[in-house]
Amino acid sequence: MSPSHFVLSSAFMLGLAGLAFYRTYILSALLCLEGLMLSLFIGLSLWPLQFDAMSSTPLPMIMLAFSACEAGVGLALLVATTRTHGTSRLKNLSLLQC
Fold it and tell me: Which residues constitute the domain of residue 68?
C-alpha cells in the first residue's frame, strides 16, 4: 500500500467515523460529509495520474460540483431548521414530532 493510498483511506475512514459518532448537530454532520467528499475528490484526482487513464479526468470536477451543491443545500437546510425549530440538533428533527 502506497503512502498516498494509506492517507486517502485513513482520511475517508476518519470522515466516516466522524459522521457515525458526531451526529448531534447538523453542522458537524455536514463537516464530516465534506471531509468524505474531499478525500474522494483527491483520490479521484490522483487516480488518472497513477494508472495513466486520461478518459476519467472530468470525474473529479463533476464530483466537486456535486459537493458544492451538497454544501449549499445542507447549509440552507441548517438555516431553515434553525429558524423553524430553534435548534440545529438532529435529534429534534424527527418527522413524528413536527
Answer: 3-93
Closest CA to 75 of 88, 66, 86: 88
List the CATH number of the domain containing 21.
Answer: 1.10.287.3510
- Determine the Cα–Cα distance for residues 22 and 39; give it in Å rounded to an integer: 18
The verdict on residue 29 lying in a domain is: yes
Name 25's bridge partners: 89
How much is the pLDDT for 75? Answer: 92
- Whole-number Å distance between alpha carbons of 78 and 30: 9
- Where do we find the cell 453542522? 27
> Cβ(78)–Cβ(30) under 8 Å?
yes
Residue 98's pLDDT is 53
pTM of the model: 0.80
Q: DSSP state, 24?
A: S
